[in-house]
Amino acid sequence: MKSILKNKQIVIGGVLILLIVLLVLLAPLITSGDYSSVDLPNKHLAPGPGHPFGTDYYGRDVWTRILYGGRISLSVAVCATLLAAVCGTLIGSVSAYFGGAVDFIIGRIMDVFMSFPMLLSSLIIGIILKASVRTMFLSIGIPCIPMFYRMTRSNTLSIRERGFTKAAVSMGSGPMRIVLRHILPNVLPHILVVFSSAMGGCILAESSLGFLGFGIPQPTPSWGLVVNEGKSFMFQCPWTAGFAGLFIALTVLGFNLLGDGIRDYLDPKIRNSYL
Amino acid sequence: MTQSTNTADQLLLKAEYLNKKFSISTGRGFKKLSYYAVRDLSLEIKKGEIFGLVGESGCGKSTLGSMLLGLQKPDSGSILFEGKDLTNLSSSKLKELRKDIQTVFQDPYDSLDPRFTIRQIMEEPLIIQGIGPAEKRTEIILSLLDRVDIPSDFLSRYPHQLSGGQRQRLCIARALTLSPRFLILDEAVSALDVSVQAQVINLLLDLKEQLELTYLFISHDLSIVKFMSDRIAVMYFGRIVELADKHELSRNIRHPYTKALFLAMPEPDPDIPVEVNHIEAGVPSLINPPGGCAFHPRCPYATDRCRKEAPELREISEGHLVACHLACEPIS
User: How far A3 CA sits from the closest chain B CA (Å)?
Assistant: First the structure.
């Protein structure tokens, strides 16, 4: 535990994420809680007392909208990425482990997914299912599965052929033990890297979907929605899009730092170098 | 290294008519080509001996080793380890048998999980086989590390902190945790420096005496095999072409391929004249094997019979087996 705190990436990334999550969770206590009522006389106010991040085109408080929007954005990003990571890793390892026809069929299905632009697959899923937060998880998470699948499959294939897995078989180890003790721990660092970059992608995907009208229905805010609304007035009042963008950027940065830090921490070669 | 007569005839392992075929895709549609890595191979390994297996790359040595280890199933044939057939044991019986047959691989960098500490690496086989409690495991681990000369304060280190020789000694120690009786050493010293090689070879010879082990020593390096082994089998193209006691083999070579291997061995004495090797370099294609004797395209003595008819492995004198039509007299 002590050594984990020596990793600056984990500490900085962790503190950043923790701070953002706390702000978002404590939104009812530190904001007015009113993110949707229109107050036209007070539109486009600059940041100041009462409105720390200013107000938007409809006179709504940006600070309140960002903190409440974080609930949607963060949960969609975390859930969608987790969904993709779990499914992708599972499918990838099954595909690599069984090989042959199973591998071939799964591989071709994944090829089909990968041949579409991710946004298009998201839209298709969004159209098929009814608009809701759950649909959002699925329509963003499912197109991310091939990333995890491809990475897990190729790494599993190479680790399965390594001497230490063969040695484990010759000692009498069953497939479960080999997967859990040898293959997964050696694939995990690669999953973490993909995970932290996918997380940023998912937050951005959510905003693109919101922009196209497939996002969370109005008036519930999300970070992507706030950015899109503020975009038209970028030069008159940059605070709307600016602050929402800042929150997206800090979250993505936090997850990337955390992911890289954990990857290094799990690698004995790197961990011992700064102990 | 001579065997005592009472154990000389006790068989430890007997393999009969082993075949292993691999297929590779051609890249054109679903058409696949197949070739035999090991073909109709039979051998017997006696208790307490070091059985050397030499041959060039791709001749099937490692495939044979991994079949004897139970990592690959032969397509046909049987492997009897003390009378039990490895190829059709139930998985629980096979797991039990695995304690007796262990291995040391060629690459010590590849055969240790980089995320395991030395303790975890040594403990893994004991945990898999349910040997315990923890104190007993630690005792076994410490005594083995001592045998292979790795300090006990290395327990919490990781493989990348060890040198190549230390890693290979660790692999040997790990192979011994289950007190096996048979060790398959597949190119176990080939990846090491010459000085470290000597160290590891001496360690292996000492361990063999102390723990009454039997070795199958697989290598492409005839000089090491000659030094280590009691009996030597020469493999070519998935078959054994000559098998004899090491002294008999160095005095009385009958197969032209064995002759070529011996000639290729570097001679440290500069005063001994170098004999010219008559063998052509090219290895024939595994996919389209030559008809008749697989060695005939490279053999300087090949006759019409060699081109048509594959020779059987037959005994030409006590314990000396050769697969060559022309093996009636020694090669000059």
Answer: 15
DSSP A15-45: HHHHHHHHHHHTHHHHS-S--S---GGGTTP
Question: Per CB distance under 8 Å, which residues of A are interface residues toward B?
Answer: 162-164, 166-173, 177, 181-182, 185-186, 266-269, 272
Work out how many CB contacts closer than 8 A connect A with B.
67
Which ipTM did the prediction report?
Answer: 0.85
Contact flag A171-B178 (C-beta cutoff 8 Å): yes
Output the six-digit token pair for A122.
């998201």
CB contact under 8 A, B70 and A164: no
Q: Do A272 and B174 touch (CB under 8 A)?
A: no
- The answer to whether A185 contacts B71, with C-beta atoms less than 8 Å apart, is no
Q: pLDDT tens-digit profile of B198-255?
A: 999 999 999 999 999 999 999 988 889 999 999 999 999 899 999 999 999 888 888 9
Strand partners, B25: B32
Structural domain containing residue B323: 253-266+277-332
pLDDT digits (tens, 9 = 90+) for B251-261: 888 898 888 88
Amino acid B224 reads: I
Specify the DSSP element, H or E, that contains A56.
Answer: none
Angle at A58 between CA A55 and CA A60, to 5 degrees: 45
Q: How far apart are CA A202 and CA A83, in angstroms?
A: 11
Is B98 close to A170, i.e. CB distance below 8 A? Answer: yes
What is the Cα–Cα distance from B59 to B222, expressed in whole angstroms?
14
Q: Give me the residue from B102, B112, B158 closest to A164, CB to CB.
A: B112
B24 in any annotated domain? no
Q: Which two tokens stand for residue A118?
A: 């991710």
CATH numbers and ranges of domains, chain A:
2-27+68-270 (1.10.3720.10)
**From B110, B116, B160, residue closest to A163, measured CB to CB:** B110
Cβ burial of B322 (10 Å; 0-12, 13-18, 19+) is buried
Judged by CB atoms closer than 8 Å, whether chains meet at B110 and A266 is answered as: no
pTM of the predicted model as reported, rounded to 2 decimal places = 0.82
Alpha-helix residue ranges (DSSP H) falling in chain B: 5-8, 61-68, 91-98, 118-128, 134-147, 164-176, 194-211, 222-228, 246-251, 256-264, 304-308
Number of domains in chain B: 2
Q: A170 and B95: CB-CB below 8 Å? A: no
Judgement on whether residues B199 and B320 belong to the same structural domain of the protein: no
Please state, rounded to an integer, the average pLDDT across all residues of chain A.
Answer: 86
